[in-house]
Amino acid sequence: MEIELEEKVAMLSSWLQEKKASSVICVDVRGKCSFTEYLVICTGTATLHNRALADYILDKSKENKIKVLGKEGLEACTWILLDMNDVIVHIFTEETLNMYKIEELWTNKLCPPL
User: Fold this and answer.
1) Which of 50, 65, 87, 89 could form a disulfide with 44 if both were Cys (CB 3.0 to 4.6 A apart)?
2) Nearest one of 26, 1, 15, 23 to 111, comparing CA atoms
3) Which domain holds residue 87?
4) What is the pTM (predicted TM-score) of this model?
């Protein structure tokens, strides 16, 4: 049984918040973007924290049978992208997020707290 889109977004957001990600933002890009339905954007405290966040998301995704289509940035860990087809997770260092300001490209919607 496939997980509903909104449930998947909530799960990803919750997992990031469990591991103390900062500024978790969920952006609904349905009808505005040709390659995904939602973006989940957050920051970690450092590259090591970003890697731990990504590893946790990958582990929890496997446990919950959420298919991961691609992973980028796991070497430098300043900007990690995890592609789950209809949801793309971006994990930034604060400095990198401030440089690219990706969240400003879309209308923001904060993820609900745990």
Assistant:
1) 50
2) 26
3) 5-110
4) 0.89
